[in-house]
Design brief:
356 residues, alpha+beta, five-stranded antiparallel β-sheet
Length: 356
Amino acid sequence: MAGNGFGTIFRFTSWGESHGPAIGCVVEGVPPRIPLSEADIQPWLDKRRPGVSRFTTQRKESDRVQILSGVFEGQTTGAPIMLLIANEDARSKDYDAIKDQFRPGHADYTYWVKYGIRDYRGGGRASARETAARVAAGAIARKILGESVTIRGALVQIGPHAIDRARWDWQAIDANPFFCPDLQTAKKWEDFLDEVRKAGSSTGAVIEVNASGIPAGLGEPIYGKLDADLAKAVMSINAVKGVEIGAGMAVAALSGEQNADEMRMKDGKVVFLSNRAGGILGGISTGQDIVVRFAVKPTSSILKPLKSVDRFGKEIEVSTKGRHDPCVGIRAVPVGEAMTAVVLADHLLRHRAQCG
């Protein structure tokens, strides 16, 4: 199975299945002598782990990370870093009933038609459980980027209910279970998700990631554009169906003068009067905040029966039991942050390699 690795110089390869003994990743390209321990990685995994509120799956995983290689006496050695996260609360019996069935909206059919075999326990490699490895790799990427770079994500829409951007408050992110920057909207989401869960259904979401402190000049023209790599990274996250950079799709309704981020000089430096480009022009960072927005589809595993077929060609109805997120987009916030960090760290190392 190809396609399990991501990156050029900073590169990670994830491994493991949702209901196997463990998941993890191998991270390559990390410069030597960077201080690193499990304590640098664990806080980011804690943000993503399941079972922390009634609005996410009740699967209980501590997601404790172990560093198995590439670190000596508290510093990276330059060798590959292997990270392991044990699976502690898999209930494979929940999936016995659908082992021969294809769940609509899931990767069941496509995995089976491609490989002729699939791990039906929790979706195997297609499970959102795989994203814990991404978050672990993203924690190492943050160490490469350094403390001058800040990467923050927020949930800006659940179902049809979007936040009021006039009330945006980064301090509110940690004060609610949704990573929501608008506490008033977060309260509305509680009632909405309770209704969705009681109905045996699910809903989608929109996440926005902001990276500040990024130097100008990262990215490579044509096929190595920074925004192209960010779009690929975010699009590779489970259940993501759309990606925007900066103003995104809204630019189609703007005039040329509205869309252009005009420039002036301040204290001998170029400053921009707006940021509709999302911090990237011609595939290269401008020094402004990089803004990435992405849409996550509703969780495919739901209690409501849906029309489908099984691997024997019989028409059936499928209802998925077990423990599932009513909105998988909630836990996608730290995953989006991690994939943004991975791309930025990779491009920082690529820039140093070419330009010094």
